[in-house]
Write a structure and sequence with these properties.
The chain is mainly beta and about 220 residues long. The chain has two domains: about 20-115; about 120-210, Jelly Rolls (Sandwich), CATH 2.60.120. About 0% of the residues lie in helices and about 45% in strands. The strands form four sheets. Strands 3, 4, 5, 7, 8 and 10 form a six-stranded antiparallel β-sheet that branches. The two termini are about 15 Å apart. The relative contact order is 0.25.
Length: about 220
């Protein structure tokens, strides 16, 4: 497999109300009226997590976020509300077209962004040699983690929805909560690999390369 590179970051400053200003919504759609909204659609600076901040107990409530990913493909997920705290989406959204709440909110809430984002996913070649070389190249100040998953939304026998996939940190501790450029490898072949920007104002580029002959 030829080397494949993906990049995450830099992110604009987080804002707790960049998607929806303070409101106490009834069951149904929230009003998207934050600074990132244009023509009724939230357009992010780069694909990133959506943050819900509540002043009341919404732990028995759920929020459904609908939008698009890095490639413009439709994505959606349901987030359990927090108790006078924050809850973040699992997926990274390039746009958000709709957010609904299952029942009347207990108190005022806002929707915005945090400082977390994941890169596009790299699909590894399951038929190639198992060792996968990884390199993370850092620009600026970041904290990042490389993650892999054996789940696959495209599986013909056991598909897993993108928001329900299990992502596991790289077994190489040098690629977990790292701040500097680093290299590592997988001794096996995950189905997917990505890099998550945990915090920081810079960016990180993940390059994955599988060497060796294809096996049959």
């Amino acid at each position: 497999m030829r080397p494949i590179s993906v990049t995450v970051g830099p992110l604009a400053s987080a804002s707790s109300n960049a998607i929806a200003l303070s409101q106490t919504p009834t069951a149904g759609a929230l009003t998207l009226n934050g600074a990132l909204v244009s023509g009724g659609v939230v357009v992010m600076d780069t694909p990133r997590q959506v943050l819900i901040t509540t002043t009341g107990n919404e732990s028995a409530n759920t929020f459904t976020i609908t939008g698009t990913d890095w490639a413009g493909s439709p994505i959606s997920e349901t987030v359990t509300g927090p108790n006078a705290s924050t809850a973040a989406s699992v997926l990274s959204y390039k746009t958000v077209t709709r957010i609904t709440i299952a029942s009347n909110a207990a108190a005022a809430l806002t929707v915005g962004t945090n400082g977390v984002a994941s890169s596009p996913w790299i699909r590894l070649d399951s038929w190639a040699a198992p060792v996968t070389a990884l390199q993370c190249s850092v620009s600026g100040t970041v904290n990042y983690t490389v993650q892999g998953s054996l789940d696959d939304p495209n599986s013909p026998t056991n598909p897993v929805a993108p928001a329900s996939m299990t992502w596991v940190s790289d077994p190489d501790a040098g690629l977990v909560s790292q701040a500097q450029s680093a290299q590592g490898y997988y001794p096996y072949t995950p189905t997917w690999v990505r890099v998550v920007l945990n915090s920081g104002t810079g960016s990180v580029t993940l390059t994955a390369s599988q060497s060796g002959s294809v096996t049959y």
